[in-house]
Design brief:
The structure holds two protein chains of two kinds. Chain A is 33% helix and 24% strand. By secondary structure, chain A is of the alpha+beta class. Chain A folds into three domains: 51 residues, Uridine Diphospho-n-acetylenolpyruvylglucosamine Reductase, domain 2; 114 residues, Uridine Diphospho-n-acetylenolpyruvylglucosamine Reductase, domain 3, CATH 3.30.465.10; 98 residues, CO dehydrogenase flavoprotein, C-terminal domain (Enolase-like, domain 1, 2-Layer Sandwich). Chain A has a five-stranded antiparallel sheet. Chain A has a four-stranded antiparallel sheet with strand order 11-12-13-14. Chain A has a three-stranded parallel sheet with strand order 1-3-2, with helices on one face. By secondary structure, chain B is an alpha+beta fold. Chain B has a seven-stranded mixed sheet, sandwiched between helices. In chain B, strands 7-15-14-13-8 form a five-stranded mixed sheet, sandwiched between helices. Chain B has a four-stranded mixed sheet with strand order 16-26-27-30, sandwiched between helices. The chains are: A alpha+beta, B alpha+beta.
């Protein structure tokens, strides 16, 4: 590998493969491998601002046909990694079966970002403030990655390993997502708290999927972003809630327990104290939705 | 003199489309980066790596290829290494003391921007770092301990009556502190300039600016050239908001110094990151009040410390502070006023002009405190304001008499009535527990001094010219020749409207060429909400002069000496009803005499008296008046809140173009909303942390509230058409109105801007008002 870091886009070597196979071939060999570039809505900004050094080479995976498309496979939705936020939010299938994901996609950046940015890019960027992550986490679906030789499946819940760290080998690309649909009886909710009402990176955001029958919590999954190094499932809370009655004492207790479970930080967008408190409030708010008719 | 009724005007008062609209929407308008002069090199700045220290040495990395790079260091400056602004304390290029992170240490130019940036990164800087004073909070802490430990950039007092004794007689005395932070102008088009060295020794500066006649003469001393060898021309400007008032002298200077060195055109266009890091911001402020009131709501005495964080050098800070202290006790009757204004140095980029220019900071504190005073007297905010607000014939805190054109109390009364304030005030939640949404309504009322502060207009003597010339197609055209710039606010439309109205012709016969100091007289800078009032009225009188001259020419040469009037595009003879079109009469004039220029100069009325040393008298010749009401909704689940509705009345004097005036009000209120609720810059390791549009958050269109906005017209009596300025007043009052509404909703008061859910959460936690 050369040691020279390009200082402009012009100095970068860019490959534009026309098929997934071609892209994986390029990724297979160290001499042709490059940073996969999809919509570029994260990378371009990071390179330009110097937060991340420009790679010597990049490989455009934008629009590769094998990475596109949203389809059903039994109890699952299959979403290509090249699907854009705009396609996600506009998809009837996503709106019906993983509605919080469609809603989250509407809050990513503005129209331009939504039109260029992809679900695979967002997942690979692995920001703790990545708006799609909570909705992916609560489906307990799988990420499918591939190299030239084989495909490999990883549970979404294990894909983000730490701050900006993902389970992906240097020769692999993210191909698609298998997301179990919500059942007809369950509901999903999404909420994002940001410094403004659009075009905002969150202070805290999250999704939940749950089912409540006769005032008793049958199932509840909740994931929160911007409160830890990765988006996190609050599994302790989920377990505690199981089979409990949905009443004020449960809500008060869950609010308290959430604030004890998350460890957010102070940063440019918000404070640790507020984030801790408001995460509890957000989970309470999610549950309160079931007190009203769907 | 009394101004004419609105009906007397034909073009003034019409909401005609902007004259620059077609060029701007079609992409024809030329901004600084659109100039492509052959052989241009690109400039970059070598910047200081520390916020405070002593420069020991500056050297170049020998490994870098310097053959294609020009370098300017202080030794290359032909004149004095001083930026010729107030204080004269800022070097163009630092050579000894470093006062802020990023202060220029050298300038470089190269055939490409890329090489120029690389070259700038290949300097080795050896500095002896010293402790820096970076934030308002640190500055105020030192101030409270001992002001003498701070480096003072400016100070001024206002004294009226005997505030200290009167405070002792008051029934209730409130002591309060309020702060506001930096605000970035965030114009769409970043700073950009081109300097072209002409063969005859002229330096031609062309770029994005508000004030061509700041750059000339300010650069003359540095470049060591006479004013007649410095040509400054404005390009199309994509927004400024004060950010292109004094700053462009710096970037123009960098380009010109490099142009002298290389003998080539030099271009510098800042990217957003550089622009935020290395250009002016609104001054952070700390206001400390002790105010005494009687139980019946009478204000007995006002004592105020108004302290601004000036940044590293003086620049315009004294005048910003002057406007601040002149608004810090304005709007209400009080016989005993004592205000101390101060500006101290911190180690950040010098803070500077920003829409409102000190008034928004002062009014943020003062209008918040008015609500606190009302509550202390057991009065509602509206009743307290109605009782105390200034009327025609009252005197200001500096003893200035409000003679005429006083929109108070009408703006206040009308706003209160329009939004049903009294009823809604009763419905406010005041932090009631168990509710998911809290509702609150809040009020602010204020005056904004029109034109320059104090003796500014008297010293400025603004000049304008109108040129009757021949267009390329042979038809006559009247060109407005002023240094007032179009920066998006509408100058290039309203001034032709005024000229057309004065002449009795349609605006299609009037044009506004971009200001160029080789072609226009000095009408003063485009600041201080002064253009419509000062420059507009002077154009009106120049237009009347030109009209009279043309009428007498047509009368003598075409109408046998009959009295002749130019009305509605026609020269009309009084006796025999003959008439000819304006273009025909004007063409005859041009054929006979050639191009015709009329000059005029603004003159303050004689009754305006001002003592600049003691700050006594008429601080401004007139005031715009405004009242803002904000309604807020707090989501008690998250402490998020939004402004659901703003109701406002403004008296801006005669309205020249109602569409553009309303645009100024709407835009100003949204900018004020950002100041109130979102915009913040913290300083990390000497640097602003929010240095990109991703992190510096301003309102989007969906953050804007419902707006119910109105004008009342109290034209300034001194001259036609009687405008008082609209640019800044919309920035003044929204932040305190929102804070007041937030208290009505939540029961807690926030005294630091911006007002955020985090701050509300902290205050509610502290007062144990968080609700389930």
């Amino acid at each position: 590998m050369s040691t020279k870091t390009p200082t402009s886009f012009e100095e970068m070597d860019c490959a534009f493969p026309s098929s997934l196979a071609e892209a994986l071939d390029l990724m297979a060999d160290e001499s042709t491998r490059g940073r996969p570039l999809a919509g570029g809505t994260d990378l371009m900004v990071q390179w330009e601002s110097g937060v991340v050094n420009r790679p010597e080479r990049s490989i455009s995976v934008k629009g590769l046909p094998e990475l596109m498309g949203i389809s059903e496979a039994g109890d699952e939705l299959v979403i290509g990694s090249g699907v854009t936020h705009m396609q996600l939010r506009s998809s009837d299938l996503v709106q019906k079966h993983v509605p919080s994901l469609a809603e989250a996609a509407t809050t990513v950046g503005g129209f331009q970002i939504q039109t260029m940015g992809t679900v695979g890019g967002s997942v690979a960027n692995a920001s703790p403030a990545g708006d799609l992550a909570p909705s992916l986490l609560i489906t307990e679906g799988r990420v499918v990655v591939a190299n030239r030789e084989r495909e490999r499946e990883i549970p979404v819940t294990e894909f983000w390993q730490g701050y900006r760290k993902i389970d992906l080998q240097p020769d692999e690309l993210i191909i698609r997502f298998h997301l179990p649909k919500k059942s007809a009886e369950s509901r999903e909710y999404w909420r994002k708290l940001g410094p403004r009402r659009a075009q905002a990176i969150s202070k805290v955001m999250g999704s939940c999927r749950g089912q409540v029958l006769d005032g008793q919590i049958q199932s509840f999954r909740v994931a929160i972003g911007s409160v830890a190094a990765t988006c996190v499932r609050l599994t302790g809370i989920e377990e505690w809630l199981l089979n409990r009655p949905l009443n004020e004492s449960t809500l008060a207790e869950v609010e308290k327990r959430v604030t004890e479970e998350v460890q957010p930080i102070d940063d440019i967008r918000s404070t640790a104290d507020y984030r801790r408190w408001v995460t509890g409030r957000m989970v309470r708010g999610f549950l309160e939705n079931w007190l009203e008719p769907a | 003199m009394t101004v004419q009724e609105r009906g007397a005007y034909r073009v003034i008062g019409q909401g005609i489309p902007r004259l620059d609209a077609a060029d701007k929407v079609s992409g024809k308008a030329e901004y600084a980066d659109d100039f492509h002069v052959p052989d241009t090199w690109y400039g970059a700045v070598v910047r200081a790596p520390v916020a405070c220290g002593k420069l020991k040495s500056l050297s170049r990395d020998p490994a870098f290829d310097w053959s294609q790079v020009a370098v300017v260091t202080p030794e290359d400056i032909p004149g004095n290494n001083i930026v010729d602004m107030m204080g004269r304390d800022m070097p163009f290029i630092a050579h000894d003391e470093i006062q802020y992170l990023g202060e220029p240490l050298a300038l470089v130019a190269a055939p490409s921007l890329h090489v120029a940036k690389q070259a700038a990164a290949h300097f080795k800087v050896d500095v002896e770092e010293r402790p820096a004073l970076l934030t308002l909070q640190e500055m105020v802490a030192v101030y409270k301990e001992d002001p003498a430990k701070l480096h003072k950039l400016s100070g001024q007092t206002i004294r009226k009556g005997d505030a200290a004794s009167a405070l002792k007689d008051a029934d209730i005395v409130l002591e309060r502190e309020y702060t506001a932070g930096h605000q970035e102008q965030l114009y769409i088009e970043p700073q950009g300039m081109v300097a072209i060295p002409e063969r005859d020794g002229t330096m031609f500066i062309h770029g994005s600016m508000q004030c061509p006649y700041y750059i000339n003469p300010e650069l003359c001393e540095t470049l060591d050239i006479p004013p007649e060898k410095l040509r400054v021309k404005q390009s199309a400007v994509g927004g400024a908001f004060g950010g292109k008032e004094e700053f462009p002298t710096l970037i123009a200077g960098y380009c010109a110094l490099l142009a002298l060195k290389t003998k080539r055109p030099i271009k510098m266009i800042y990217d957003r990151n550089q622009d935020i890091l290395y250009s002016t911001k609104r001054h952070p402020s700390w206001s400390h009040y002790r105010v005494g009131v009687m139980k019946d709501g009478t204000i007995r005495a006002i004592e105020c410390d108004f302290v601004l964080d000036g940044g590293a050098y003086t620049t315009l800070s004294p005048v910003v502070m002057y406007r601040g202290i002149l608004h810090a006790a304005m709007g209400y009757r009080c016989e005993n006023v004592s205000i101390d204004g101060h500006v101290y140095r911190t180690n950040t980029f010098p803070n500077g002009a920003f829409r409102g220019f000190g008034a928004p900071q002062a009014l943020w504190a003062w209008e918040s405190l008015i609500d606190e005073l009302a509550a202390a007297c057991g009065m509602t905010p509206d009743a307290f304001r109605l009782k105390n607000c200034l009327h025609e014939g009252d005197v200001t805190p500096t003893g200035g008499l409000l003679r005429d054109s006083v929109g108070s109390p009408e703006v206040l009364e009308k706003t209160l009535e329009r939004c049903q304030f009294a009823e809604k005030w009763q419905q406010c939640s005041r932090g009631k527990s168990g509710e998911r949404l809290w509702y609150g309504i809040g009020l602010s009322f204020f005056a904004h001094g029109s034109g320059f502060t104090g003796d500014g207009e008297a010293r400025m003597k603004s000049k304008v010219a109108l040129d009757l010339e021949t267009r390329a197609d042979g038809t006559p055209i009247v060109n407005v020749r002023v240094s007032s710039t179009e920066m998006g606010q509408g100058t290039g439309t309203i001034l032709p409207q005024v000229a057309a109205d004065a002449l009795g012709i349609d605006v299609t016969h009037v044009d506004y060429p971009m200001p160029d100091t080789f072609k226009v007289p000095d009408s003063g800078p485009t600041v201080a909400s002064r253009t419509a009032m000062v420059v507009g009225s002077t154009i009106y009188s120049a237009g009347q002069k030109m009209k009279a001259d043309l009428e007498s020419f047509v009368s003598e040469t075409l109408f046998d000496g009959q009295p002749t009037e130019l009305v509605e595009n026609q020269f009309r003879a009084e006796y025999d009803n003959r008439s000819i079109p304006f273009v025909e009469g004007a063409a005859a004039y041009l054929a006979s005499h050639g191009p015709f220029r009329v000059y005029d100069q603004f003159k303050l009325p004689d009754y305006v008296k001002w003592d600049q040393e003691n700050f006594v008298g008429d601080a401004y010749p007139a005031y715009a008046w405004g009242c803002n009401v904000a309604e807020v909704e707090v989501d008690t689940l998250t402490c998020e809140f939004r402004v659901t509705k703003v109701t406002a009345f403004f008296d801006i004097g005669r309205i020249l173009n109602p569409v553009l005036a309303m645009g100024q009000v709407q835009g100003g209120l949204i900018q004020a909303l950002g100041y109130a609720m979102m915009e913040k810059l913290a300083i990390k390791a000497g640097k602003y942390d929010a240095d990109r549009m991703q992190t510096y958050v301003i309102p989007t269109s969906v953050d804007g509230p419902e707006m119910d906005l109105h004008f009342v017209e109290y034209p300034w009596d001194h001259c036609q058409p009687g405008a008082k300025g609209v640019g800044e007043a919309p920035m003044d009052g929204l932040a305190p109105a929102i804070a007041n509404a937030l208290e009505a909703a939540s029961g807690v008061r926030l005294r630091d801007l911006p007002l955020t859910p985090e701050r509300l959460f902290e205050e509610l936690s502290r007062s144990q008002r968080l609700t389930a």
